[in-house]
Write a structure and sequence with these properties.
The chain is α/β, with parallel strands linked by helices. It has a seven-stranded mixed beta sheet with strand order 6-5-18-17-16-7-8, sandwiched between helices. A six-stranded mixed β-barrel has the order 23-27-24-26-25-28. The chain binds ligand MGD (2 copies), iron/sulfur cluster and molybdenum atom. One ligand MGD is lined by residues 94, 146, 170-171, 174, 328-330, 416-418, 421-422, 443-445, 447, 461, 597, 599, 605-607, 672, 691-692, 708. This is Molybdopterin-dependent oxidoreductase.
Length: 720
């Protein structure tokens, strides 16, 4: 474990009278109080990151006698901002979970698993990978990872060595429409809002309190204290309302209408005259129909509300923007999310907010990482998902699952991606995995996905191995580097780098991995102007942000583009126009509601679903229940606390109802990630239902995002 050599610094603080205090006592204030006779506090301080959510907050772990004693969020990391959120603190000791997979497993004829040796597992998987390549070409192989640095680089390199370009980030699937719509307009794929200095921010569908990065919450609080206007556009009033100055209860899936009307209003007010926009007149002509009254009709907000919002944005520009966050809810959620992202990118351009204080900072890709030892090898074949989903930036993971279902992808490697639990229509995904000639899950714990795979490989947790660095953030970009914190709790578990290198050996492409994680990490750090030792010692190293003066638009016109030939080819208009969601409550008649979802503070994807204390909290407060609008409930004869049945053609399930004014009348809401279906995850047994069960396996045209909220359900009182 190279961390020991390079990063572990033993800090020693004796009691108040101790001699060592002078050297390092300040670092450990509060830890060392006590009489002079008390044993010294000796901790190894190792920098690492929380991987519970994509914020990947950097933190320092204080390790005493091989165990994590305390964790301190890294102050230099803009996500952590000196602390972690409750989920991060709670999961810092996840390695000790009783449910870890303890050895490689192979599925037997009768569907059970037998323990096999690593040699046997890696040899057999490697040979099958090579055979599939021989028979059907590298394009018949695909991988989905959680998108964390080491997994993504190693898996890409392995697949490219096998002739496959088909590697997808599950985490990117969750923002694919935002990334791709933004890319169509600007050539960039992500931006981050400078909340702290903003005068106004319009946040579309992000539960910023319930999914918090501590840094985002602190920055929004700072903005509020300075008098900023924070507008939450959300179909329900989530806990995030506490950070907002206004809540706009939009009809779910109709934000595009709102954004188009705002664009029209901004142009009317003369904004954008100096903006670097190509084909603005073409878009201006299209926008003329999108009056506030038109948008009000569609999205359920008053025309006056839309007028005021537009006027306020114009007034606050350039320290004002539309924030799409992840617009997560899985990548897009709606048939119009990609176009919404494109329209929002153009509105932000009209506001002049790109990379100016208080605006939205585009994140430049790390150009220096284009050619590393760990970079993918050249592959002739094109990404198989691009044929149908040409707009998807970095590919469409769900389409890879569909191709597996149809038989053209035969080998699937899933690294920390619980696709059978978290994609729409879990049965479809299950079948896709079961139809593969080879399916492999790399995971620390048994999951619904692992249970559909032929092989399950026990993985070390993030905290149990050294990692490659990652660059994140745009307002204050940083390079984070994580080192191993503790010895592996499960002796048989291997890191993703070890597993991938082993598979390469089994598939006879071992030459592709003639470097170590430390070698590759050092190369990456140096490309960013840091030394490996220095980056590991501080954990988070600041990098320069992209300034407005240095912004060069990586588009064909060298400007932000209102028109996109690629979008037009995918069946959209050249410039963003109104696109109806795929299904609409009104079209189906009275009694059909859109089933929305969203995160909730005590639950973190499926990683915490099996946690007993969290399950108890959810049970006690009824957090796994269904939200229903009070007027809608009254009309249906449903009262607070009733047991109801929600139903559509895909599923039917009983659930306790929470009747509230705080949700838009056409929407129902079920918190994400409840409804664990795996028998071995016993703590979560019987808690809640899985929203994805009510959703068909369908994807957003061109963009390839799962349409997680394009589904309608009926609600009736149980027994009625
Ligand atoms: N506690 C917790 N935090 C997490 C996670 C977790 O599992 N649990 N997961 C992490 C991950 S992977 C991600 S991608 C992020 C996602 O974080 P966010 O981007 O914030 O996404 P969600 O929490 O899924 O949903 C945000 C809000 O959208 C609202 N909403 C639903 N439908 C609509 C709609 O049609 N229109 C509008 N305007 N609003 C709508 C919901 O009510 C919810 O309040 O969270 C991360 N943080
Ligand atoms: N209905 C509904 N579906 C959703 C969403 C939603 O809001 N509602 N959100 C979507 C979004 S934004 C995303 S990113 C995806 C996420 O969906 P998933 O791909 O399911 O991601 P995770 O649940 O985070 O789990 C990934 C896997 O990481 C592994 N893992 C890594 N570290 C640990 C650990 O410490 N403990 C445990 N137990 N497992 C670990 C396990 O194999 C785990 O199953 O879900 C999407 N699906
Ligand atoms: S926001 Fe919380 S869960 Fe997400 S990475 Fe940071 S500490 Fe971990
Ligand atoms: Mo996500």
């Amino acid at each position: 474990m190279s961390a020991k050599v390079i990063t572990r610094r033993g800090f020693v603080a004796a009691g108040v009278a101790g001699a060592a205090l002078a050297a390092s006592g300040a670092t450990l204030a509060g830890c060392a109080a006590g009489p002079a006779t008390e044993k010294a506090y000796v901790a190894d301080v190792v920098n690492t990151q929380c991987t519970v959510c994509p914020n990947q907050c950097g933190y320092a772990a204080y390790v005493v006698d091989g165990n994590i004693d305390k964790v301190v969020g890294n102050a230099a990391d803009p996500h952590a901002a000196g602390t972690l959120c409750a989920r991060g603190f709670g999961m810092a000791t996840a390695a000790a979970s009783a449910d870890r997979v303890e050895s490689p497993l192979r599925r037997t004829e009768d569907g059970r698993y037998e323990a096999v040796s690593w040699d046997e597992a890696l040899g057999q998987i490697g040979r099958t990978l090579a055979d599939i390549r021989q028979d059907a070409g590298g394009s018949a192989l695909a991988a989905i990872t959680d998108g964390t640095s080491t997994a993504q680089w190693y898996v890409r390199r392995l697949m490219s060595a096998l002739g496959s370009p088909n590697v997808y980030e599950n985490a990117t699937t969750a923002s694919v429409s935002v990334a791709s719509g933004l890319a169509q307009a600007t050539g960039f794929t992500a931006y981050e809002v400078d909340y702290a200095r903003a005068k106004m921010v319009v946040i579309l569908g992000a539960s910023t309190v319930e999914v918090p990065s501590p840094g985002a919450v602190a920055a929004l609080e700072e903005a509020r204290a300075a008098g900023a206007q924070v507008v939450m556009v959300d179909s329900r009033l989530a806990a995030s309302g506490s950070l907002a100055t206004e809540w706009l209860p939009v009809r779910p899936g109709t934000e595009l209408a709102l954004v188009l009307a705002v664009a029209r209003g901004l142009l009317e007010r003369g904004l954008g005259a100096e903006a670097p926009l190509a084909d603005l007149d073409q878009w201006r002509a299209v926008l003329s129909d999108y009056t506030p009254a038109w948008a009000a009709e569609i999205c359920g907000l008053g025309a006056d509300v839309i007028e005021t919002l537009t006027a306020d944005l114009a007034q606050a520009a350039p320290a004002a923007c539309i924030d799409l966050s992840w617009m997560a809810l899985f990548g897009g959620s709606y048939g119009n999310t990609g176009e919404l992202a494109r329209a929002a990118a153009l509105v932000n351009t009209l506001l002049g907010c790109w990379n100016v204080p208080g605006g939205a900072y585009l994140a430049a890709p790390v150009a220096a990482w284009a050619d590393l030892s760990v970079s993918p090898l050249p592959v002739e074949a094109a990404d198989v998902t691009a044929e149908v989903y040409a707009l998807a930036w970095d590919g469409a993971a769900p389409q890879a699952l569909r191709l597996a279902h149809e038989g053209s992808i035969r080998g699937l490697l899933l690294v920390d991606a619980n696709v059978a639990a978290e994609y729409p229509d879990p049965d479809y995904v299950r079948e896709a995995l079961e139809r593969c000639t080879l399916s492999v899950a790399v995971t620390p714990e048994m999951t619904e996905t692992a249970r559909c795979c032929q092989f399950v490989l026990p993985e070390k947790l993030w905290s149990e191995s050294d990692q490659l660095p990652a660059v994140t953030g745009a307002v204050h970009p940083v390079l984070n580097l994580s080192s191993a914190v503790i010895e592996p709790v499960v002796p048989e578990a291997r890191s993703v780098a070890e597993i991938v290198s082993g598979l390469a050996q089994g598939a006879d492409v071992a030459d592709a991995f003639n470097f170590s994680v430390a070698d590759a990490a050092a190369e990456m750090c140096e490309a960013c102007g840091c030394t490996y030792a220095g980056a590991a010692a501080v954990g988070t190293s600041s990098l320069a942000s992209l300034t407005a003066e240095n912004l060069v638009w990586p588009t064909a016109s060298g400007k932000v583009e209102c028109a996109s030939a690629a979008c037009e080819a995918a069946g959209y208009s050249a410039t963003p126009t109104w696109v109806e969601p795929t299904v609409a409550p009104d079209a189906l008649g009275f009694g059909y509601y859109r089933l929305t979802t969203g995160n909730q503070a005590p639950q973190t994807t499926t990683k915490t679903a099996n946690g007993a204390p969290l399950a108890a909290i959810a049970e006690q407060y009824g957090l796994d229940g269904l939200w229903m609008n009070a007027a809608a409930a009254e009309a249906a004869g449903i009262a607070e606390g009733d047991k109801v049945v929600i139903e559509n053609e895909y599923a039917s399930a009983p659930v306790r109802v929470h009747v509230t004014e705080l949700i838009e009348p056409t929407a129902l809401y079920l918190a994400s990630h409840y409804g664990v279906e795996d028998d071995e995850q016993q703590q979560a047994d019987g808690l809640g239902i899985r929203q994805a069960r009510f959703v068909p396996f369908a994807l957003e045209r061109g963009y390839g995002a799962p349409l997680l909220q394009e589904t309608m359900v009926t609600v009736r009182k149980a027994g009625a």
